[in-house]
Write a structure and sequence with these properties.
The protein is α/β, with parallel strands linked by helices. The chain has a single domain, classed as Nucleotidyltransferase, domain 5, CATH 3.30.420.10. The chain is built from eleven helices and five strands; from the N terminus they run E-H-H-E-E-H-E-H-H-E-H-H-H-H-H-H. Strands 3-2-1-4-5 form a five-stranded mixed beta sheet, sandwiched between helices. The longest helix has 25 residues.
């Protein structure tokens, strides 16, 4: 067996939405640093941690891996100076164009809800993504919104059998399978890197998360019989060819960290 449908693996990186926090908390006149401190302090008092809710996350990077036909590539959507609305719309444009199988790690728990709220704020349009049979009858049984369907495959949720207490970090699963895991950054460092103007580093980090996710997905497809051992090896070799053909430092580091790389 082989991978027939286009596959789009995705990951987002976010920072606190300071403009939104300023509006909701009535903090006009405060600078960004003051607003960030106020938002974190309030969140910590309310929830015991300072991680912002989905509707107060601002998207600063969206990275994707596309497996279509005989091709495979990984990239970050938009230029570094692209606005959030453009990034979100271009992501949904990809869904509209390819109607791929979406693959994520915790995409149902975080990435997609964030994209929903930010798309709403920016007036984005994505009819095929939201369709559950209104435009296409087949979408009633094969859509992106059904938790127990595979048109969007949230690997973390599926592998934990939809039980949150068994959720595992992508980094640890990747390491267990011989993949590099997170390189040089984690989500807790993104806001600091963003404030320091290191968007390129954030995008590179997001891309490596996407590739880790795709490699885990290939192993998952092997486990459920949609790939044979031979076709699985061919898919991994396709990924290695992509890495070999790139001169980007983060891909060289990824290849070095891949067991047997």
């Amino acid at each position: 067996m082989s991978l027939r449908d286009p596959i789009l693996v995705f990951d987002i990186e976010t920072v606190p939405d300071l403009d939104g926090g300023r509006r909701l908390l009535g903090l006009d006149g405060m600078n960004d640093a003051e607003v960030a401190t106020a938002m974190k302090t309030l969140r910590l008092a309310e929830r015991g941690n300072d991680f912002m809710p989905a509707h107060l996350q601002r998207v600063v990077a969206i990275s994707v891996a596309l497996r279509q036909g005989e091709s495979f590539k990984v990239w970050s959507i938009g230029d570094e100076d692209a606005g959030e609305g453009e990034l979100v719309q271009r992501f949904f444009d990809g869904v509209e164009k390819y109607r791929p199988v979406l693959v994520s790690w915790n995409g149902g728990g975080f990435d997609l809800p964030v994209l929903h709220y930010r798309g709403l704020i920016h007036g984005c349009v994505a009819p095929k993504y939201w369709d559950t049979g209104h435009f296409d009858r087949e979408a009633k049984w094969d859509n992106y919104l059904g938790r127990y369907q595979f048109r969007h495959t949230d690997l973390m949720d599926v592998l934990a059998l939809y039980g949150g207490r068994n959720n595992a970090p992508l980094h640890e699963i990747a390491l267990l399978l011989g993949f590099p895991g997170k390189l040089g950054m984690d989500g807790s460092k993104v806001f600091e890197a963003f404030c320091a103007g290191r968007l390129r580093d954030i995008r590179a980090y997001c891309e490596t998360d996407v590739l880790n996710t795709y490699l885990v997905y290939l192993r998952f497809e092997l486990m459920r019989g949609r790939l044979t051992h031979e076709s699985h090896a061919q898919e991994e070799q396709r990924v290695r060819a992509f890495l070999d053909n790139s001169d980007a430092p983060h891909w060289a580091e990824f290849l070095d960290g891949w067991a047997g790389g």
